[in-house]
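sorry for the late reply, my laptop died twice this morning and i had to redo everyting from scratch. anyway the thing you sent over, i finally got around to it. pasting the sequence first so we're on the same page, its 192 residues, then the predicted structure underneath. double check i copied it right bc i was rushing
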Amino acid sequence: MAQLSDEYVRYEGLFLSLKDVITASEQRVLNENPDRLFIDNVNFFVKSYLISICSYLEAFLQDVAFKYSQRISTRMEEACIPHNFMHWRLKTGLKDKNYNYESMLLPINKKDISDNISASPYRTLKLFQNLGVDLSKSYDFENNKDLVNMVVTKRNNIVHHNDRAADVSFGDLKSFIDVILPYMKAVKEATL
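ok and here's the structure:
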């Protein structure tokens, strides 16, 4: 379980570093003698930072889900549950020719996770439901999911529709990070 905690700390550090970069960029625009590079390309920097925020969040969610699913797979392997028993009790209709007298193994790989998750709170919620984790019971997940969804939707519009993101400021980006951190922590805590 310490790995999940270390994982949260690592991503929190990435977000806090990004927040420092955003603050420095904002200062270059607001200085008495503003930096022309930043003045002329504010929108580019804002869009880049917003995409980075969503990329960090998605990477964190994938890592947490993958490590959690590995723990489930390991516990199942250690339990030595017969393959045929599982199929019988789950009423899967296992055919005689498919009987297997080994223990049931359900390995998982990163692709299994990445194919089923994104930074979208609704896809996150669904994958974690499949893992047996009800994120909807977490106050910080529920309280922040609408704003996180708005951020992810904005990112998707930038990437897929070349949205200018003119309605997002450097200050907004820092506020997004302030919301995403407790949201991430809620996901991490739900898997402990």
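The two ends are 6 Å apart (CA to CA).
thats about all i looked at so far, will dig more tmrw
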